[in-house]
Amino acid sequence: MVVIENVSKVFKSGKENLTAVDNVSLTVRRGEIFAIIGYSGAGKSTLVRLINGLESVSEGTLTVAGHRISGQKESALREARQNIGMIFQQFNLMNSRTIAGNIEFPLKVAGWDKAKRRARVQEMLEFVGLGDRAKYYPDQLSGGQKQRVGIARALATSPSLLLADESTSALDPETTQEVLGLLKKVNDELGITVVVITHEMDVVSSIADRVAVMEKGKVVEMGNVYDVFSNPQTDVARRFVSTTVKQAPNAFEAAELKRRHRGYLVNIEITEGNTGIGKVLSYLGNRGVHFNIVQGGLETLQGKSYGNLTLELLGDITSLDAVVAELATVTTVKEVRS
To answer: What is the pTM of this model?
Structure first.
């Protein structure tokens, strides 16, 4: 669906150049929800503007649904963009037009006749749950309703690719989940490929199939969402994971835990690949080891759990050493050291 090969984007500012996207290569598969996550300045929003041709590629090649985007003239890009829908953080609705008028606008541009436009507008309103809001104006709607209109407008011309650039950043948590549910519906029921640009871990964990992590214009980590966030390989990915799941204690935390707990402290990593939390705790109980959970957390992604638990084990230190050594054969376990 989207093939990006060695793409860079350099902005010229006086005598200096700013590399916003730096030699990025990735492929978005047809029919998936692909997330691009990164902190402010990572280059993710520039990358999405390259995908829809709003910015020109400095180096490399970029194609969408077989249409080359990189190096094309505006006339060719207009045709390619008809296959790409876009929704934005600030909705970008026209306040002088009704909700129906906003959704109808791209259909007019595409040359649809009036009867087909009206039928399509109503179809899209029903799809996003706003069938009774056709004659309302944007300032009469809530933020979540405005984003639903934005989604309906983006879908009106039946694109095969939907780009969502920070589309939930202006919404409260409950409304965010409603909009994410709608994006999932777009993907499931219409078969549209969705690319989500975000700095929010919850957005990725809620709906994405795969994720690319960006930092300083580069893709530093990429893969299945569960694999990337249950076993992050880069500092930036670990920072994102730490916003939802407590990580293994750092040196300062370890010292504080040792001050407060006199038992044998170990950190256990829980992933689908080793063993579940229930098995770990049953394992300790069956060997007569008493324990307290003193820190940690678990998260579920794509139906699988991951996380870290710090346990205080109580009992004879020699026996505990043996239990920990045996436990290390079935899961990742490390003594907590300050």
So the answer is: 0.84
